Amino acid sequence: MTKRESEPATRSVKRRKLFHGSTATLLVGDERRSFIVHKQLLCSVSDYFIAALEGNFKEATEQNIEFPDEDPEIIERFLLWVYNGNILEKSETVVGIPYEVLASLYVFAESRCVYQLQNDVIDVLIRKSFTKEEDKILSPDDWFTKVSPSSPLRRLVADVAADGGTLDDPSWEFQEYPKDFLIDLIQALYKVKLTGRVRGFWKIRCNYHIHGEGEPRCSEDASEIQE
User: Fold this and answer.
1) pLDDT tens digits for 67-101?
2) Which residues partner with 150 through β-bridges?
3) Among the listed residues 105, 75, 83, 69, the one whose alpha carbon sits nearest the alpha carbon of residue 38
């Protein structure tokens, strides 16, 4: 498989070069649990953090960012990715990471413009959804209303469902799904009618990524789906 600049192993090496200098503190949840992070490293993943820590906001003066509505476990997962370039813990597989964690991590990444994290969550979600143990896709529950209408995650879930995929929560009744999801699903079903079923979502995962202008497409190596 051809290595790309944005692959986790390469990004992890580059991030280690930022493990020095001043730090910033993330204060998370009602109890304001604190996480101390290398500032340069944090700023390297999103302009959101540059604006907060180097702009004219209170956060820049205090070098603190408050996330009162976030779950500390999601921030821990975010920082795992920041420092290691990987969403999964060392001994964890894609089967082991819960769908709700992936959804919450994606919502956090989208709201803070951490585009590469969004892409990495999509990749793990696709890998998880097409393992023999899972063979299902994320259901459109609480996360659905927290992402943008044009969110790649919304498109992915609708496309997989339209392509014959199974939603991960079979207890849901059809009428309980968000109205906007049903609209997404109808549009996705129409696309399947016109173009046929997808032959492997891993190969087209770039359709659900956010890439900068001129950035190369992802490898189409289907062997990435394994566990």
Assistant:
1) 999 999 999 999 999 999 999 998 999 999 999 99
2) none
3) 83
3-class SS shares of the chain: helix, strand, coil, % to 5: 50, 10, 45
**Residue 201, token pair as written in the block:** 């979502």
Mean confidence (pLDDT) of the chain: 85
The model's pLDDT over 158-190, given as tens digits with 9 standing for 90+, comes to 999 888 766 666 555 666 788 999 999 999 999
Tokens of 28: 């998370």
- Residues 32 and 21: beta-carbon distance below 8 Å: no
Whose tokens are 């020095």? That residue is 20
Number of H helices, E strands in the chain: 9, 3
Whether the Cβ atoms of residue 49 and residue 43 lie closer than 8 Å to each other: yes
Residue 209 three-state SS: coil
Q: Are 81 and 117 in contact (CB under 8 A)?
A: yes
Q: Dump pLDDT digits (tens) for 93-123.
A: 999 999 999 999 999 999 999 999 999 999 9
> Counting Cβ atoms within 10 Å, is residue 29 exposed (0-12), middle (13-18) or buried (19+)?
middle
What is the C-alpha separation between 106 and 114, in angstroms, rounded? 9
Q: Which of 83, 112, 116 is nearest to 14 (CA)?
A: 83
